[in-house]
Amino acid sequence: MKQADDYQELLGRIAADVAPLIGSGTPAEYIPALASVDPRRFGMAIADLDGTVYGVGDWRLPFSAQSITKVFALALALSLDGDALWERVGREPSGNPFNSLVQLEYENGIPRNPFINAGALVVTDRLQTLTGDASSDLLEFLRAESGNPDLAFDQEVADSEGENGDRNAALAHFMASYGNIANPVPILLDHYFWQCSIRASCADLALAARFLARHGLRADGSRLLSRSEAKQVNAVMMTCGTYDAAGEFAYRVGLPGKSGVGGGIVAVVPGRCTLCVWSPGLDRRGNSVAGVAALDRFTTLTGLSVF
Ligand code: GLN
C-alpha cells in the first residue's frame, strides 16, 4: 500500500464507491457563505509521512476548514502550555452537540473537551494569551506545515460567523463568568471566527496534519509535540473529534478524526499517513455524509485502522 499507484487506485475506488452518497445530507445553513457551497463537491487526499500527497476529485479546491482548525489550535496550545492546558478543558466525550451549553453550568465552566465549541474557545483563549495573536499564529502554522503560503482567512465567512455568533458569544461569556476565559470576550470571538474561516484544500489539510502521524514531528523535522502529546491529541480526536457521533465514527472508521461543518474531515493513521476528505452535505450531527463513508471505505479496503 505504499506506492503511488496503489494510493491512486484506492482513491479512485473509494470515490466510485461513495458516489451515490455525494449530494446527500445538507450543507451547513447557519451562515450564508456555507449554505451556498455546491453540495455535489467531493475530494479526498492522502499524505504520506514524507509529504507526498495523492488525491481524487476536488482535492485541490479550498473549502472552509471550520472545526478542523480546532485540532491545530489544540496542538499549538499544548506545545506552548503543556499539561497546564488540561486544568481549563477536559478530555471526555460530551455526548452533546458541538455548540451545546447544557453541561457547562453543571461542570463549573470547564468544557468537556477541546473539540466542542466551548472547549475550542478556551484553547483559543489560551493561545491568545500565549502568543498575542492566536489566529495569525495558527494560519502561519498551517501555511508552514502544508507548504502553501496562499492559505488565508475568508473575510466573508469570518464576518458572517460574527453576525450569527450569539451562541458562541454566550458560551464565551458564560465561561468568563466562571473565570475560565482570560481575554476580553469580543477579542477572543474575533480570533475564534477568523480561525474557523480559514480556507484550505484536502491536500493542504492532509499535509498540515502530518505531525500527528509523525509522532509530533513537524514537516521541517523539528518537534512540535512530544510523542506522548501527539498520542494524546490523536486519542482526543478519536473520542471527541466528531462530536456526539464520535462513537459511531470510531466504530465505522477506527481512526482519530476531526470534522468541520464545512464538510471536511481530517483523519490520522499514526506512523503511516494522514487523510482529508471533503463533501459539504452533513448529517444531523454536523459530519460529512460522503466524507465519513469514504473514510469507512478506506479503513475497510486497507485494514489501516488503529484497531
Ligand atoms: N464556526 C462553527 C461554529 O463555531 C464551527 C463549528 C463546526 O465546524 N462544528 O459554530
Structural topology:
Elements: H1 4-18, H2 32-35, E1 43-48, E2 53-57, E3 63-64, H3 69-81, H4 102-106, H5 117-131, H6 134-146, H7 155-163, H8 166-177, H9 185-197, E4 199-200, H10 202-208, H11 210-213, H12 227-240, H13 246-252, E5 257-259, E6 264-269, E7 273-278, H14 289-302
Helix pairs in contact: 1-14, 3-5, 3-6, 3-12, 5-8, 5-9, 6-9, 6-10, 7-9, 8-9
The protein binds glutamine.
Tell me briefly what this model is.
The protein is of the alpha+beta class and about 300 residues long. The chain has helices spanning about 5-20, 30-35, 70-80, 100-105, 115-130, 135-145, 155-165, 165-175, 185-195, 200-210, 210-215, 225-240, 245-250, 290-300, and strands at about 45-50, 55, 65, 200, 255-260, 265-270, 275-280.
Salient structural properties:
307 residues; Beta-lactamase; five-stranded antiparallel β-sheet; two-stranded antiparallel sheet; binds glutamine
Walkthrough of the structure:
This protein is an alpha+beta fold and 307 residues long. The chain has 14 helices and seven strands. It has helices at residues 4-18, 32-35, 69-81, 102-106, 117-131, 134-146, 155-163, 166-177, 185-197, 202-208, 210-213, 227-240, 246-252, 289-302; strands at residues 43-48, 53-57, 63-64, 199-200, 257-259, 264-269, 273-278. Strands 2-1-7-6-5 form a five-stranded antiparallel sheet. The protein has a two-stranded antiparallel sheet with strand order 3-4. A hairpin with a 4-residue loop joins strand 1 (43-48) and strand 2. Helix 1 packs across helix 14 (289-302). The model has no long low-confidence stretch (mean pLDDT 96). Residues 66-67, 98-99, 117, 161, 168, 196, 260-261, 286 line the site of glutamine.
